[in-house]
Amino acid sequence: NAGVMQNPRHLVRRRGQEARLRCSPMKGHSHVYWYRQLPEEGLKFMVYLQKENIIDESGMPKERFSAEFPKEGPSILRIQQVVRGDSAAYFCASSPSGRGNSPLHFGNGTRLTVT
Amino acid sequence: GQSLEQPSEVTAVEGAIVQINCTYQTSGFYGLSWYQQHDGGAPTFLSYNALDGLEETGRFSSFLSRSDSYGYLLLQELQMKDSASYFCAVLGAGGSQGNLIFGKGTKLSVKP
Predict the structure, then answer these.
(1) Which residues of B touch A55 (CB under 8 A)?
(2) pLDDT averaged over chain B?
């Protein structure tokens, strides 16, 4: 009964490189969400996807960031040309539906460090 | 816009009761959730209130007053393992779970 799986757990990139973060939702969950967390801060919504569709990307920067959730395989959050300000913990969550009372199940996050 | 206010830190002793308050401002209200996060760990869902009143789940209870835009999380019979950060959250516009707005979190320290 695997939960939400994220990898890698830690990722170090130099400025200008690309970062790819992966998320496999819980079995049976077709709704995936990406959140970003800075130290001592709450989680900030980035993007909400359903299989092959982006439902809401209002929290994601317009440039350098993209997300996908293909028919087969994990959801990917991609950050191009990373800058120091991208250093944060990125959490993925999934839920069986997009209804308001459906709790989010979070993964353990990917800690991105940009040097 | 939407914003949530909660205390940044709370300290209590083992066995005690602690209440973590949350006030919110939203353009539309679709429910208040609470999540727990241990250092470096995944946030885990604790409770959800859509209607006024108290919801009890074991040692944890959550309360909501929509007229006051206020809620709280009550933790009873505190244990050391309850030391964690607790976040209140409201749903974004449209009530879709997709855009959950989180508070900055309350760090609870439980002392022996």
Answers:
(1) 96, 98
(2) 91
CA distance A69 to A74: 6
Contact A106 B43 (CB under 8 A): yes
Contact A45 B92 (CB under 8 A): yes
Report the distance separating Cα A10 and Cα B61, nearest Å: 35
How far is it, in rounded angstroms, from Cα B31 to Cα B89?
Answer: 8
How far is Cα of residue B91 from the mean position of the Cα atoms in its chain? 13
Dump pLDDT digits (tens) for A81-108. Answer: 999 999 999 999 999 887 667 789 999 9
DSSP symbols for A46-101: EEEEETTEEEE-TTS-SSSEEEE--SSS-EEEEE-S--GGG-EEEEEEEES---TT
Residue in B87, B92, B97 nearest the CB of A42 = B87
The span from the CA of B30 to the CA of A85, in Å, is: 32
Query: pLDDT tens, B12-64?
Result: 999 999 999 999 998 777 889 999 999 989 999 999 998 999 999 899 999 99
Q: What is chain B's alpha carbon radius of gyration, rounded to the nearest angstrom?
A: 13
Q: Touching check for A104 and chain B: CB below 8 Å? A: yes
A91 touches chain B (CB under 8 A): yes
Q: Mind giving me the DSSP string for A85-100?
A: GG-EEEEEEEES---T
DSSP β-ladder status, A31-37 and A105-106:
unpaired
The 3-state DSSP class for residue A28 equals coil
